[in-house]
Amino acid sequence: MAVLLETTLGDIVVDLYPEERPRCCLNFLKLCKIKYYNYCLFHSIQTDFMAQTGDPTGTGKGGASIFSKLYGDQAKYFEMETSPRIKHTKKGAVSMVNNGSECHGSQFFFTLAENLDYLDGQHTVFGEVSEGMEILMKINEAICDKENRPYQDIRINHTVILDDPYDDPKGLEIPDRSPEPSKEQLESGRIGADEEIDDTKGMAAEEVEERFKEKEAKAKAQILEMIGDLPDADVKPPENVLFVCKLNPVTTSEDLEIIFSRFGKINSCEVIKDKVTDDSLQYAFIEFEREEDCEEAYFKMDNVLIDERRIHVDFSQSVAKVNKQGKVVWEHQKPDGRPQYKIKDQTSRQSKKYDLVLDDDVPSSSKSESRSRHRHGDSEERVSSKKPKRRKSSESESSDSEQERRRKDQKKKKRRDSSSEDEDRNRRKDSSREDRDRRDRHRGQEDRRERSYRDEDRYRGKDRERGKDRERDSRGDSRKDKYRDRDGDRYGGRSRDRYRDERDRR
Length: 506
Known about the structure:
By secondary structure, this protein is α+β, with helices and mostly antiparallel strands. The protein has ten helices and 19 strands. The strands form five sheets. The chain has a nine-stranded antiparallel beta sheet. It has a four-stranded antiparallel beta sheet with strand order 13-14-12-17, covered by helices on one side. Strands 6-8 form a two-stranded antiparallel ribbon. Strand 13 and strand 14 (280-288) form a beta hairpin. The radius of gyration is 57 Å and the shape is extended.
């Protein structure tokens, strides 16, 4: 007895256990036969655990058994079948979902891992997947949200009964063909099952790489906008500005303006210079009034010899002087056409009393008036400083006396503090001196003790040597006495020489 489930990812064949689970198999087969499971969502997929379906509402809270079609809502659920006991040991086991009161309805799930023993006794296993295990693994790899619901719909499109040993109950209405899905059934709020989510499908590798680079550039532009380096993420470089590099250091802005003006009117020409040394950095920006003139200069002036240097010309990619409206904003221009830098925000850190005035913007008459006014103001300040001071009133005198009293009190307090600090310092010095004397005394006692020990050892060594000498002398005397006694017996108490003399006289 088997059922074929046609899903949006492929076909799955389920073999049932009619002898061990007759009521569960009857319920599942007859629900498939009336097309109850058509277009049901896999509303919960937990990786390496289970994939749950069988709820027509797609919420996980609906569904009813086949017996509700025969006997009404009081037969919406039926009791679990617990014997014989079948465990969730296989990957691909099919089990009815417990509704929380030890009953089953229409919902079931596939196990996506082996040895799920903690599901035993809670849910009823009534079949297993015999074909389509690779489809089940595709379902296992679905990307889901934190509620375990897939972002893209996975549905059961159709069910086909391959073998049905049960007779159809009386009163069961079986449709002639599969019903069409309703609009509410297909609206899940997620990506449709037939909707293509791969934007690069059918595109060449070059096109995919180009699209990736565009996305990366857009992301970088947004970051630059957030940190303030770009006025807008969608800003583009102006098309009427040329970038000229590899210039000779002697080439000036006036030279370039004269050379490039043959192609059209030039709004600005600037050779970039070092801020400190004012030396040319050997590149420049040229803004034309018309884009056509800019394009013509680009095609004709690249690799041209200027001041014995081959220059390189390209369209500018800089957006440093482009505002949010896409227009180029140039600095204040001097009468001779050269750019002049100006302070953009004078109210940020400068006082309103003093403003930065450019020499070119102020006429000579106003300059002389400002100088005379400045001198006049200085003289007025000096005169006002020489004016005699007014007498203080009684209130000011009382306040001054009070301030003087406070000042004296503060001085007394400082003296007391300084005297107490001096006493503490002297006390610390005395204690440190006493500690130093104590250490010196202790060190002298140790030195004397060590010297006495050394002297005792030396004297003890001398006594030992004297004793040895005394013992040696006594040993020599005893030896002399022995030989003396022996010679006395031999020569009769006479010496050897005397004995020889007497012998010779005889």
